[in-house]
Design goal:
The protein is α+β, with helices and mostly antiparallel strands. About 15% of the residues lie in helices and about 25% in strands. It is built from seven helices and 19 strands. Strand 8 and strand 9 form a beta hairpin. The chain is globular, with a radius of gyration of 22 Å.
């Protein structure tokens, strides 16, 4: 049986760049005001048949002003009129800020009013969602408020700060920070609208939750909306959504699919030869759509990430035939790849070193110079060679 899990919020996106070899990369190109909405969903590497059923009915694009474009000429822009991603930059995006990461992040946004459109009051009102240490720096995640309502979808900014210097920013912030008009429909009305949009009857729902939030839109500004989270009673083919229903019209603004399938079929993204020979492909324990090769330990028949002493997966780059780590040297401890509770080892690859023009700051960025993608590829290659040698 497939197991469903709730998606975790990814709090620091990275700019997807084309590989130097001209192979593939996910994500839009730089500096185009009409960039598709990042929150609307994008193609994903998956080894199962379930495709994300996200929906974004918001229309239009808040086009950056000439001043904004002059301040960030190479930025990607979200449809809400602010930069989707900035940096990394050798000198930092801003320096001389507070040693406290959250204070520094707020100072940066306030100083960048012409770029993000947020005045001091709007920045001060933002909710702090996390301050997460990364190496010698920290990621600060802040959420916009529109009047008394928190942003329910979009309205987020992640700022990577180190020693009072802002290194990287990703944002789904809205330039329009007005308080929305009050909702006129009820929470029950919104629940019924979400049910209809999900194609479910009330007796097919295991549970639901409704809360009032704000959803920024490019064309109509912030809208009061009900965030309706529901899940079905069917465990074989589960349905779970958070649906944002306009609090005045009852229309569905955005729907987020909360179901990801598969933790019993681990998968790895790997180059079959060298990066210049083509894009990564997907190898899985068992055949599945999107997988080009079935792989398993030839001696035990187990997946590569299983510890044979316990019979359990390690959820990282440690297994029955290989243990691959990141080791920068200089007394730094060796670390395994970031753990994947779903055993999906198709880590994002952004060619960060090339894109940053060999800026050493990438080693302490959130993606650590594509460390997880590199470790995942190395783990797949080590196991592939082990299995080949075993058969000899």
């Amino acid at each position: 049986m497939s197991r469903a899990r709730h998606r975790r919020v990814v709090y620091l996106a990275v700019v997807a760049m084309a590989l130097a070899s001209g192979t593939a990369a996910a994500g839009p190109a730089a500096a185009a005001p009409a960039t598709p909405n990042p929150s609307a969903g994008s193609p994903d590497v998956r080894g199962d048949s379930h495709q994300p059923r996200d929906k974004d009915n918001r229309t239009g694009t808040a086009v950056p002003s000439a001043t904004q474009l002059s301040l960030a000429p190479t930025a990607r822009w979200n449809t809400l009129g602010t930069p989707a991603a900035l940096g990394p930059k050798a000198t930092g995006l801003a320096t001389g800020l507070s040693a406290d990461p959250e204070t520094a992040a707020r100072q940066y946004l306030t100083l960048s009013r012409e770029l993000f459109g947020l005045d001091q009051a709007a920045v001060a009102a933002m909710d702090q969602l996390l301050v997460d240490p990364i190496g010698t720096g920290a990621v600060v995640l802040l959420r916009q408020r529109f009047g008394d309502l928190p942003a329910g979808h979009d309205g987020l900014v992640a700022v990577l700060v180190r020693d009072g210097t802002v290194l990287h920013v990703t944002s789904s912030l809205a330039r329009d920070t007005r308080a929305p008009e009050a909702a006129t429909i009820s929470a029950d009305d919104a629940y019924r609208a979400a049910l209809a949009d999900a194609g479910l009857a009330a007796d097919q729902v295991a549970g639901h939750d409704v809360s009032l939030v704000a959803v920024p839109t490019p064309a109509d500004g912030p809208r009061a909306a009900y965030a309706v989270t529901l899940s079905s009673t069917d465990l074989d083919t589960p349905v779970a959504f958070t649906t944002y229903v306009d609090g005045r019209t009852g229309a569905v603004l955005v729907r987020d699919d909360l179901v990801d399938f598969d933790s019993d079929n681990p998968k790895w993204a790997a180059f079959e030869a060298t990066p210049a020979a083509g894009p990564r492909v997907i190898w899985c324990l068992t055949a599945a759509p999107g997988c080009v090769r079935e792989v398993r330990d030839p001696a035990s028949g187990q997946a590569w990430d299983v510890d044979l002493a316990t019979g359990l997966p390690t959820f990282t780059s440690n297994g029955n035939s290989a243990r691959d780590v990141l080791n920068w040297g200089g007394g730094n401890p060796a670390t395994l790849a970031t753990a994947s509770p779903t055993r999906d080892y198709t880590y994002a690859l952004t060619d960060q070193w090339h894109a940053a023009q060999c800026d050493p700051a990438v080693f302490t960025s959130a993606t650590r110079n594509d460390a997880d993608a590199a470790i995942g590829n190395l783990f797949a290659m080590h196991n592939r060679m082990h299995d080949f040698a075993y058969r000899l």
